């Protein structure tokens, strides 16, 4: 089974940059999008003809956040959000249930300029970890998406300049992801490529992508029960159209 996760930074914008052609080239069973910046109806319209069933979530605020999962394999159920009202008004989570596992697509809140939203982010991290841990009691879980944190020094081009100063690389955010991993998950890319330096997000400023001054913010976290099934985990840096690039996971089931 092949899965792709991609923060598209506006699904209607990337639609004008060949999104359907990208989807066809992925040839994935499941594709998760973050930051669709659209209503579910708008996303479904963009994806018409893709060959996938679309399970979308949207923020109450127009043009903000939003997530979607595309599946060409049968699912048993779907759920929007994590069941907590204060966390579910930004359309950040979509979950689908397959026969063997759940797939949870998440767009984790950014801590913001000046880290103004860091306290909320910590609150979110704890609630989200509890949500996926509750799912794990039923069957294994795969978490994918833009987790808005560089977990290790090698996951960010300029760690010293950003540590505890910039959203996405504070110790409190790092600890949040560490806690999630410790609750029963493996970072699939790091498991297969323990020393590889590769990024999935680059600022639009200063030619950062061309200079490869980036961050690894996008992940597939795989339930420990499924670690033996991981046969591939990659970062598709040659795919453009967003400030992020897609990341992929392949499982043998």
Q: List the domain count as a whole number.
A: 1
What is the CATH first-level class name? Answer: Alpha Beta
Helix content: 25-40%
Strand content: 25-35%
| CATH fold name | Deoxyribonuclease I, Chain A
CATH superfamily: Endonuclease/exonuclease/phosphatase
Strand order of the largest sheet: 3-4-2-1-14-13
Could you explain the architecture of this structure?
The chain is of the alpha+beta class and 253 residues long. Helix 4 packs parallel to helix 6. 25% of the residues lie in helices and 26% in strands. The chain starts with a strand and ends with a strand. Strands 3-4-2-1-14-13 form a six-stranded mixed beta sheet. The protein has a six-stranded mixed beta sheet with strand order 5-6-7-8-12-9. The chain is globular. The chain has eight helices and 14 strands.
Task: Name a few traits of the molecule.
single chain; 6-stranded mixed beta sheet; globular
